[in-house]
Amino acid sequence: MNRLSYIARRLVRTLVVTVAVVLLSFFLIRLAPGDAATVMAGQAGFADEAFIQNLRAEYGLDQPLPVQLWKYVSAVAHGDLGTSYERRQPVLDIILERLPNTLLLDGFALVVALAGGITLGAFAARRPGSAGDAGVTVLAMLFYAVPQFWLGMMAVLVFSVWLAVLPPFGIETMGADYTGLARIGDVAQHMILPGMTLALYYMASYARLTRAAMIEVADADFVKTARAKGIGERQVARRHILRNALIPLITYAGLQASILVGGTVLVENVFSWPGVGTLAYQAVTARDNPLLLGIFIVTAILVSLFNLITDIAYSIADPRVQLQ
Amino acid sequence: MTALVAIAGLSVALPPGGDRPYAVRDVSLEIGTSEIVCIVGESGSGKSVTAHALMGLLPRGLDAAGGSIRFDGREILGQPAQDWRRMRGAEIAMIFQDPMAALNPVVPVGRQITEQIRAHRSIGEAAAMQQAGDLMVQMGLEAAHLHAFPHQLSGGQRQRVMIAMALSLSPRLLIADEPTTALDVTTQAQILDLIRTVQKERQMSVLFITHDFGVVSDLADRVAVMRAGEVVESGPVRQVLDDPRHPYTRALIAAVPRLSGSPDPLPPHAPVLAVTGLSKVYRRGGGFLGLGARRETRALDKVSLTLQRGETLGIVGESGSGKSTLARCIIRLADVDDGEILFDGADLAKMNGRGLRACRKRIQMVFQDPFSSLNPRHTVSEIVTAGPRAHGEGAKEALARAAEMLALVGLEASALPRYPHEFSGGQRQRIGLARALMLKPDVLIADEPVSALDVTVQAQVLELLDRVRAHMNLAMLFITHDMRVAARICHRVMVMRQGRVVEEGPAATLFAAPKSDYTSQLLAAIPGQSRLEA
Amino acid sequence: MKDFLVRFLARPQTLIGLLVFAAIVVLALGAPLLFPRGPFTIVGMPLLAPGSPGLPAGSDVLGRDMLVGLIYGARVSLLVGIASTCCSVGIGVLLGAVAGYYGGAVDDVLMRITEFFQIIPAFVLLMVLVAFLQPSLFSTVVGIALITWPQVARVVRGEFLALRSREFVQAAKLLGESDLYIIFRQILPNALPPIVVVGSMMVGSAILTESALSFLGLGDPNLRSWGSMIGASRSAMWVAWWTTVLPGLAIMVTVLALNFIGDGLNEALSPRRRR
Q1: Which residues of C fall within a CB distance of 8 Å from B367?
Q2: Which of A153, A118, A155, A143 is nearest to A241 (CA)?
Q3: Share of chain A residues as helix, strand and coil, in percent rounded to the nearest 5
Q4: Nearest CA-CA partner of C225 in C93, C14, C28, C1
Q5: CATH domain A99-317 topology
Q6: Among candidates B60, B374, B387 on the partner chain, residue whose Cβ is nearest the Cβ of C175
Q7: Sequence ranges of the domains in chain C
Q8: pLDDT value at A43 more than 70
Q9: Same CATH fold, B273-362+441-532 and B3-91+173-255?
Q10: Angle between helices A49-59 and A36-44 (to 10 degrees)
Q11: Is the ipTM, as predicted for this complex, more than 0.90?
Q12: C121 CB near a chain A CB, below 8 Å?
């Protein structure tokens, strides 16, 4: 019952965040100089005042703000994120076409980061102050200080230019037209560099967090109890220390998701990965505001859904959730 | 009687840079088969370190520097980790002070018990769970509690779980490190009873660590008194209690407050503070948009009291009784739901802003925690003169008075430019008292002012409070969970339970002949009365 | 204070961080004196390798001096890092203190806002903001401050929430001290260490964020920054590694130095000793 009410509250939060994102977007539109009509007119090559007025009427831009807001919200609620200035296609369609590629890349990066980060963190926490621990800490510090996009470019320089072992660009070999397993293998090969570039940063932060959490939990009284029971050190570490240290990590994974999206935009651009991130870059260079805003809305909703999932996972991992 | 455990000349070194080179030094101690030995001492005496050394669980950075520990004739100090592991839980088991922290919060308690059984015996989970269930029942719990998480149990239940776990492999020695310190007095009595019972049934040896001579006199066969890492005196409990040889032991025993000898009530006078029908409800939950369960707790239910000048009124109760809430409501640190607080004829409950500020000046408070009650970043002179300065007194006059006030509470004026961390717990409580007295209050509320202090320091601070009360003709509201402390300085006592007043009367009469069953229970639960009251 | 300095300077990493950071600051401040011609002047053939005559760091795709670009880039990075952190810490401390001290509705609203900012993809929002406001130094600083202040507010609010129930704060109320006095003289000094640590770490992350924006072409077009140098040389990376490697290293060294300082502050200010 308590867990259900916790999940219900989180569900409400997800909805509230979604609504807030849409409202924020509406006001962001107003930040841009000129309205949609002038921009479209500019792109169409007409600067005729009458034409612009027509466009304004067509898009309802001449109506009072609350009316526009209401129209905007109900449009978004129906999945209408507007039309791309540049491509003259519904924004949502363009995004959805690219989304699977991004989800594939992020999913891979997340799994690698979690698995690698927890392993490294647990390893470092076993002997705080040892050479292994220092190594993990130094690596984490380095990855924190390096711009992700630059790390990606260095990876291209090393693995594609100098060693020539991995493909630097795209999601599959152009013109090869692989099918079945061969295609999966080809995509996987293309995914290694961008996926690892993306994963390394988060791996570093998970390693740092796991290490800190484990060292903190290792001081807890119940760990002393476990030792007093005569349990082996390995079991103490796994069942008592790691089990408790992982709980904050779940929440952290949720919070990191929003940062992961930012990283994706950059890494996709470095590797020309045909996902939402490259789309965002194209929208920026083409001054395609509806598309850029659409990407913001869609990614925000996805991240808040991901947070909902981690919240549910958290409520399963920590029985004390009812206390909050 | 052969000794099960023989500790000889044990020394444990502290890392360099501490206030002393050894945590314990040259400790020798024997524990016979089926004997209860208590180690008693104040904080920092090394009693816990001794127990942990016996368990092979010294904290990182502490190492045994010499001596020997024989268990059943075999040297165990310095034995390989493997051998320690085999012994722990099976031969020697341990329970700790705070059972909430000592249990893994995310594992059901049943699994925590079976884990121990299965670490030493090759049996299946189901069979182990069966054993765990039986143990729980023996400890006065239900088998259904096996599936509970620690946070779903009460403090006493958690400690029972810990004991069930400790006994699961019938160890020959049970080490109990202050296992009842975090519990209410009635729960403490039950747990002590339980430990005594299982000890007899199983013919087990017990090493019991405590700071409380009451517990010692109720439980121990033999006792060792420790101070600053050394055993100053040891022997059969009767001998040590009745005929203490070391002056420190004598001081410790003398410092234990007695229930008898309370001051007589004052002749009735017009009250300076009169509280009528005070009620307070805590509402929790609700959460975002009012979703989620709402819980209401009646913290105070129509509480009334009067207090006159020169009088100390004790408010006594266990945790959750509402005694601290009462103090906070009277001084309006918490809002009041209903009732009136008449102070010098004006109702504090209805006051706000400037009026409240003026009234509060005349009601001051001394707090429980000597560490958090003084701002670590302010000097003593800033702390003590803060009140007068806030009320517009010149810095020079305030400083001059501060020096006098420090003298009154037994501190030197040289304390003024120093920071709180340079003082001991008892000294900090004195600084806190000086801060409160600087505003020349009429009423002083003391919220558990001595419960964080060692017993010898406790006695000094109590004596100081009483002297100051008399000297300044203060009305004092004294909040405590400890009946013996209340008996020492209160003229009248009020017993609270779950937000209500259970009983109220002159201290001497109330403690000698309680009217309510609850008060009798509380009094009966105080350890060590038979011997220490004599 | 003396204690603090001793502990702060005891770690070699902290000293290295401080020295490196000081050197970067001196170079950044001295850039107009050292290279009065500015970073955009073409000085020779494009893509000359480092070590070419007069070009210790080579030249870029347009034949501009890499070294001058790197030094002028420091100005942008430091300015953005420090300015946005100042804004962000200012807003965050003020709102966090009010929310933490008074609680209630103010706190509820603030917590919803910080939660919101934690969940939404901040970098995408930043791109939208900067793109819509038109890329400039101003929009970069405002944008970064806008997406980072909730972090500070959260930390400050947590500290205030914990500290306001401390007995010394209650004592201060009883003594009749005013709310403002309690917030600034009683609580804030105790809440300062985590604020200083968060602030010092934020300068580094703001520098990283700025470089990412510039890399995507969302930096101030009138300034040469490390990010924009990397972005502009993407096509040249295959033949002239130095055009991307050097600005990246500059970012890394700067951020690393800042993080060393931040770590040092953390160690020196937090009462719990490192094991």
Answers
A1: 167, 170-171
A2: A118
A3: 80, 0, 20
A4: C28
A5: MetI-like fold (1.10.3720)
A6: B387
A7: 12-32+59-274
A8: no
A9: yes
A10: 130
A11: no
A12: yes
Give the CATH fold of the B273-362+441-532 domain: Rossmann fold (3.40.50)
The identity of residue C155, as a single letter, is V
List, for residues C108-134, the tens digit of each pLDDT value: 888 888 889 888 899 999 999 998 888
Dihedral in degrees, nearest 10, Cα atoms A66, A67, A73, A77: 150
Mean pLDDT of chain B: 90
Q: Is the pTM of this model over 0.90?
A: no
Q: CA of A287 to nearest chain C CA: how many angstroms apart?
A: 8
* CATH class (in words) of the domain with range B3-91+173-255: alpha beta
Render pLDDT for A123-139 as a digit per residue (tens, 0 to 9).
Answer: 888 888 888 888 888 88
Contact between chains at B104 and A318 (C-beta distance less than 8 A) = no
Look at B89 and B287; give whichever has higher pLDDT: B89
CA B210 to chain centre: 11
Would the pLDDT of A53 be above 60? Answer: yes
CA within 13 Å, CB half, A78: 8
- Option in B365, B391, B432 nearest C176 (CB): B391
Minimum Cα–Cα distance from B379: chain C residue: C186
Tokens 């006051």 locate to B351
Does residue B75 contact residue A214 with C-beta atoms inside 8 Å? Answer: no
- To the question of domain C12-32+59-274 being in CATH 1.10.3720.10, the answer is yes
**C124 closest CB neighbour out of A13, A215, A280:** A280
Contacts of residue A33, defined as CB under 8 A and 6 or more positions apart, other chains included, come to C134
All chains having 3 or more CB pairs closer than 8 angstroms to chain B: A, C
Asked if the Cβ–Cβ distance from B373 to C167 is below 8 Å, we say yes
Q: Do the chains contact at B373 and C168, CB–CB below 8 Å?
A: yes
pLDDT at C232: 87
- Chain A residues lying within 8 Å of C245, measured CB to CB: 154, 157
- What is the rounded distance in angstroms from the CA atom of residue C127 to the CA atom of residue A276? 14
